[in-house]
Amino acid sequence: LQQLEEIQAQCEATQDYSALNSLIQAVFTNPDQLSQSFVQTYDSDIRIDKPQVRQAYTLILHKCPEQVVDTLNRSVIQLLDQIHESLFEAQFGDIILIKLLDIFASISGDLQDALCENLTNANDEDEDLAMQDGALIKDITEEYPNNQEIQQFQYLLDGLQSFISKRLRNKSTPDTTPNRDHAVINTTKCLAAFHRLNEKRRFVKFEAFYNDVLNEQLEIKDDFPQFKDRKGFSFCDYPFILNPATKADILKVESMFQMRHELQDAFFRALFQGVNSPYLVLEIRRDHIIHDTLYQLETKSTQDLKKQLRVQFVGEEGIDEGGVQKEFFQLIVRELFDPRYGMFVSDDDSRLCWFKPDPTDDHIAISEYKLVGMLLGLAVYNSVILDVHFPLALYKKLMVVPVTLQDLRQLDPGLGRGLQQLLYYEGNVEVAYDRSFQIDKDVWGCINTFDLKENGASIKLTNENRQEFVQLYVDYVLNKSTEKQFNAFRDGFNLVCADSAIKQIFRPEEVEQLICGSSDLDFDALEKATLYDGGWNKDTPIIKSFWEIVHAFSDEEKKRLLFFATGSDRVPIGGLSKLQFVIAKNGADSDRNLRLPTSHTCYNVLLLCEYSSKEKLRERLLTSISNAEGFGMI
């Protein structure tokens, strides 16, 4: 480093950089020379002086002219070809690479690409080679990384993400997709190592790995088949980089392929075996909605569940093009989760639902939990958002992710806080708490006592075993006490989704968004995304009045409008900008003040007359959205 600094100063004084170019080329293309250039002078397990490596790169990149930087780029690219061919210590090579990542944003695009490719090809048997031995982030002994480590990780991550974004924005030809860009693929593979490290240490939120530009440009119809057929590179194998909206679109493509396959099969079976419906048809009586649904779904095969859903309410007109099934889900979910029905309990503080503990072996009740699981699976499969309020723990259990005290605290804040206080208590736990490894629970109005472990009554809670007590308590509440109910629920869900990409590409948090939608009622985004028909546009006076009225609505009125126009009051994953909403002119002007607004919920179309005043529009609109129950909607 000292020699480099001296020659750089001399070259800067004379403006002749030939000597510096020669030095860089000699050192950075020769593994033997390089391995002797940054040796530690103090005791350490790692004999390479990492700060010196970084200082050398920074000096060249920030204090030297472009010709010297070009020499460094060419030299390091040449070095990268040798770095994992046993020409010098693997550990040293990885440090050289990681120090390049430190200044990733400053190096050339070609060098960035070569660096990412080299990191991803480091070692087939140990793909995290560059993440070990403190090469990326120093060994962490604390439970959580400190601020400096978090900032370093964020800096490295931002550099890689920025490279992908800039590369895609400046693509050479319009038809160049992310799947065809070698540099983007290499960088994504490199990001995978960062993601694995982040899953262990939690440096940043998982959302930091989403890349917006890539999600905008990804061609799902090309990428997904490669994932399913295991042919070629697919971003579905690196789901951390895909946002929930893209993943939801992937599921739609998968469902479309599967439904098309079942439709073709039904056609051919009809030729040889007689008529067989290409749809999953449910004929439902409104006043027997749970009984009819349970009975009919129990008679369906797994193959039938893969067909597109069609719901017919007995005695009612209306062809289900999506709107009827939305209302069906709305009604049956409301009834199944009604406290009077007794399947689920709701916490007063969190307002979240959980399975009701039941020590009896009631076959009918268990089958109804299976029905709820099937309904969630069918909703996912048919792209319907549900008004359900489960904690994240449910989706973690569906995805076979362990639940924690934090999950219990979300479901039952009071109990969660109490257990947290037990862990932090600084006094004598045995004296202060005076309890055993038993707990009392209210089950159907009766207080029952349960052992958290064998002979729990004889085991005193102490400072030494309180961690075990809390873990067993969490396990009891979220797992053991409702094991039969959840297993039935999971089995029902898996009947529809067992082979789905949902298990491979979604996180539990994203499954929750997929099923429940978003809570963000961003009507500004909805206005920007809305299309118009019947000669209207965004500047038509009636349309301007409509949006002025709607923006002044309360959140509850906005939800009613969504339900009236789309059949669901839930916001789709990705926000209201993803909703294909249309406002169209309805009817002649002669009766415009008499007719109420109507809707095609199947197609998210709101039909308005050109009312004589803004006040009349508001009055007619509120009347309609306040009486939207039933298929009075078109």
TrEMBL record:
<dbReference type="GO" id="GO:0005737">
    <property type="term" value="C:cytoplasm"/>
</dbReference>
<protein>
    <recommendedName>
        <fullName>HECT-type E3 ubiquitin transferase</fullName>
        <ecNumber>2.3.2.26</ecNumber>
    </recommendedName>
</protein>
<dbReference type="InterPro" id="IPR044611">
    <property type="entry name" value="E3A/B/C-like"/>
</dbReference>
<feature type="domain" description="HECT">
    <location>
        <begin position="301"/>
        <end position="634"/>
    </location>
</feature>
<keyword id="KW-0808">Transferase</keyword>
<dbReference type="Pfam" id="PF00632">
    <property type="entry name" value="HECT"/>
</dbReference>
<keyword id="KW-0833">Ubl conjugation pathway</keyword>
<feature type="active site" description="Glycyl thioester intermediate">
    <location>
        <position position="602"/>
    </location>
</feature>
<dbReference type="GO" id="GO:0061630">
    <property type="term" value="F:ubiquitin protein ligase activity"/>
</dbReference>
<dbReference type="InterPro" id="IPR035983">
    <property type="entry name" value="Hect_E3_ubiquitin_ligase"/>
</dbReference>
<dbReference type="InterPro" id="IPR000569">
    <property type="entry name" value="HECT_dom"/>
</dbReference>
<dbReference type="GO" id="GO:0000209">
    <property type="term" value="P:protein polyubiquitination"/>
</dbReference>
<keyword id="KW-0963">Cytoplasm</keyword>
